[in-house]
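Notes to self after the call with IL:
- keep both proteins in one doc
- input above output, always
- annotate only the second one for now

Protein 1:
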Amino acid sequence: MKAIFPALIGLTVAGSGAAASHALGKRTPFSLDVTIHSTGNTNVMATVTNSGDEGYNLYFKNTLLDTSAVDKVVVTVDENKVPSNGLRLVFNRYKLSPTHFLKLEPGEVRQVEFDIAETYRLQDSPHGIHEVSAEGYFLYAELNSTQTIGRIPYASNKLVLQIDQEQAAVVYEQANPDYRDRDLRKRSIIDKNHCSSSQAYTIAQGQRYVTNWAQKAANAVSTGYPPQLFNAYWKSKVYIDEIKTCYTGIANEAAGIGGDKITIACRDTGTGDSCAGEAGEDPPLAFAREYDSLMVLCPPYWDAPIIVNTCSPDQSSQVETLMHELTHFQNVCGHTCDDLAYGRAASKGLPYSDAVDNADTYALFAQDYINNCSG
């Protein structure tokens, strides 16, 4: 699939200006400087500086400022990406917690240090020379607000590190003591060792909805129908094959067709508890870990309704969350979707080149199509 960051750069330049910073789906002019430097073997320090004249409330979850075990940087060896077991956390996208935002005033600096060996399998690389860079975007809100109004892209310098792979292996095993068991685990769509019978029943019920939604969404996308809703979310038929492939993969996975690729558990199966969230932060609804094809449904997930039958207001449902998370798996969707925008308004504000890679766009288009919502 296409690279995300180059698309962001081109659209940022085209959409720069005073109005761009206060519209959903738009980007601000470049005003965040991100640099990284090595602090020893696999340890990296990232520095984020607000070099603009405007203060931001940055949504930092699933970014390089997140202290959770998420993918913070891009690590390559011989121009190939190094496998990672980084998490993709999903929260209630319609009521983002203040604990997931960082205030960044003009001139203010934030720093975070992390060990890339905790999530990247550097020990499996053919040699120790690796390149590390940080690129992506921050969703942001105005100061003292949690209503995201746009995205700020960034790109750091590139590091070339000579890594001690034996030491990296030790760090990885300490951070992932159960990884050998995960690598050997038999795939099953519902991990009944980590889900109660009632939870397994509820998941199976949700999967039936997901199959139905995804099948109907795939058919709708193929015809561009209904045009008002199609144009609101997808804007163009340029990537119609990729969109249909993703929906078809989701429908097949939820129905158990072609072999179950994803394991769904109802608690963290590792030694830590990523469902608990970081200290002082609200916990996630769920998280996806693409490396070992694992989706974990956390306690807040079960508080959401199974489905939402209305077009507004925005509200998370179990089925929408399942569909959202399944787009994060390349072996299901055909490409790995990201979280480029949350909620209806922001998702509809994306250009077609970003909509194809946005997890919420798939879930919300399907839900709105089922509910006969207008564009």
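Protein 2 (the one to annotate):
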Amino acid sequence: MAAQVIIDEEECIGCESCVELCPSVFGWDEDSEKAFVNEGADANDDCVEEAVASCPSECIEVE
């Protein structure tokens, strides 16, 4: 099974760092002011690790 990127939307503080660092994987929802994982996103994209490490609320994980 392929790895998946998951965002805990309850924990997301809306800082947008993941979206800025890795726009191919993360998107931004203007209504909820939260990040989301783009459909079909590649969890192995090089920028995912950097986004996980930079998340201040530690709400991103790769399974």
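Annotation: The longest strand covers residues 26-29. The beta strands are 5-7, 26-29, 34-37, 60-62.
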